Amino acid sequence: MAKPKKTVIEYRNYELPMNFPVLLLTGDRWHISDVKSGKLHFHNCLEIGVCHTDSGFIEFDNTPVAFKAGDMTFISRNVPHTTYSSKGEASLWSYIFIQPDELLKGVFDDSSPYAEVFADMLQNFQLILNKSEYPDVYNILSMVMYELEHKGVNYQLSVKGLMLSLFMKLMRIHSANKGKELTNKDFHENAIVISPALDYVKENYMMNFPMEDLADMCHLSQTHFRRVFHEIMNTSPLNYLNTTRILQSCILLRTTEASILSISEQVGFRSVSSYNRHFSEIMGTHPSEWRHNMAKVDKASILEYTGWMQAQNLSEPKRT
After folding, report:
1. CATH number of the domain at 185-294, please?
2. Which tens digit of pLDDT belongs to each residue from 63-98?
């Protein structure tokens, strides 16, 4: 029996402005071909799409999901996918590439009652909504695209406000889909109490310090601190510290050529074996393997193409 063909997955890095990490692609040139690409791709930011005409499929791994005109798509940065139109059609789209955690920095930080839902949503988004069922979401997106296209006075501030409204609505939809209502009761009255500990970990994760110091900063007994911390963060203080260290190490793995040992020391682990173990538990793979996979970066900008139809055709092998 012939071996099944291995799916090719490509990482695409879209460089967004640091101070305003939002990019709009819209207009008559942004069509999607009916030619199915031979590979999936994922990227470093959230992709929001609005389908204006025709129909087709978005394929996640080997699972195709149909789309039609009026659909809005929300795909997380780490979800491999590809999109193609129905036979004989060339669906027209507008796309917004965005880093919501940077644009809305400070709004959904670790002390926010919605931080967990926001983080979960950004990591696990594969959502398709139609404007007939969610006209409010469609209207907000339309206003966002108008602001980004026309760049009126204070448009960036307007976009930020609209995006805040959009993501609150999306969090409610995401929570409902997971069977959990997002209501004010999710707010923990003691959330502000552990803020000093969260701030300290953020600034000093690379240092070795006893967890008792975090309790003292919050003016709580050790037992009470651990209980309150777990109620709010759904993890222990030590696990939170280790997760922070691992995520910071990912940045070093991607942006430097430092050794695994050196990186493990830079982020605060006392031994490389401890670092490897925690990395595998959190990221699901070994640091060297993760670095190798992330090194396969396609540095070509999406803006080099005149449209998705042409971009897709460029990826097809020439027929002789």
Report:
1. 1.10.10.60
2. 889 999 999 999 987 677 899 999 999 999 999 999
**65-75 exposure pattern, b = at least 16 Cβ within 10 A, e = fewer:** eebeebbbbbb
- Give the fold, CATH level 3, of 9-183: Jelly Rolls (2.60.120)
Q: Where in the chain is the domain with CATH 2.60.120.280?
A: 9-183
Name the pTM for this structure: 0.60
11 vs 78: CA distance, rounded Å: 9
- Cα separation, 138 vs 130, whole angstroms: 8
Report the first-to-last Cα separation within the chain, whole angstroms.
28
For 247-293, what is each residue's pLDDT tens digit?
Answer: 888 878 877 889 999 999 999 999 999 999 999 988 888 999 988 87
Q: Which among 193, 264, 209, 286 has a CA at the least distance from the CA of 241?
A: 209
| Chain-centroid distance, C-alpha 47 | 9
**Distance, CA of 265 to CA of 317 (rounded, Å):** 46
